[in-house]
Amino acid sequence: GHFGSSRVLARSGSCAPAVAAHRQPAAIMAPPTECVFFDLDDSLYQNGWATMDRVTARVGEYCTTVLGLPPGRDFELYKTYGTTVCGLVREGLLEESRVPEFLRFAHDVPLEDVRPSPGLREVLRAIPHRRWVFTASIRQHAERCLERLGIRDLFLGIVSASSPEMMERVGYVSKHDPRCFTAAMDFAGVPRELAAGCVLLDDSTTNLRTAKELGWRTVLVGLEKRDGSRVECPHADAAVASLLALPAAAPELFAARPDAGAAEFAPGEKRRAGEDAAAECCMAPGSISETESTSAGEDLEDAPARGLGLGAKRRRLRARGLEGGPRGAGGACGAPARALRAYLSDSTDCSYEGLPAMDDLAAESSSP
């Protein structure tokens, strides 16, 4: 079946994730899943927008105190250009050489509200496909959040729409620009002709719209706006209150590919027999992330070096990361399958219904 064949809305109860009790049969079988891209902020973790509100406040602070712009100008730029940094650069308010400084300042926020979600690790590990983070935030922020969530080792890499590599490739554009999506496929090693095998899980209706236009499959994460009204997104093939409800809303994501032997594994998972960890580095060619963690204040100037030309030291570091961590099959057997069965058997209090029209960009949380 194909979760894109009928829109399913799974709503979590107070105690357990939801289970879709009914699904319409798919008319056309879905293409094999090549890669699953997860948005970070308000998707892999959810805290009522607390963290991103802090980032937004830091953006405003930089614009007023460092650049001398009037209050509210940062939001005007965000509304016009999709991100504040794009607007600052395009209107000549921020030199390109100062973009890394601006982004580090904006993301230098406390993360006490980013907490591990019980069961999230088991849900992610049960997905037997390549998993990447695709975020509008900087890589260092993503690394910090993933470490706090205890799931950093479950992803092959991080694609940051705010990274120097992305900007060099597509210019100063927002994450929902189609060029960012095609670049994400390139970084993850997915051929352009296999776009239908990509899946995006995101809380942004604008990002989901772009993904759908490019042929990706889509899952909306988060069912309510800030005012408590329901998010409307006709571009979502499925919708979940949180990723804990994903097994019910999109069970196809948990089915192993017929050619599962060719799959890649993240550092915290069992590698297939004979795989050269040092050579593979558990990263797709051209990856813009590193397995080792970094702090929010790390200099970004050396970021272009994190492409194909990996040094021997980094290869060894990544090999060690791949050797360590929790072990477990990434496919449809072992602990992940047991965890999935537990979710499906223990979940109650579910409902599902069709998704109405597209949400307005103004209702979404802002990003730098």
From TrEMBL:
* One Pfam family hit: Hydrolase
Q: Which residues cross the membrane?
A: none
Top-level taxonomic group:
Eukaryota
Q: What's the name of the protein?
A: Pyrimidine 5'-nucleotidase
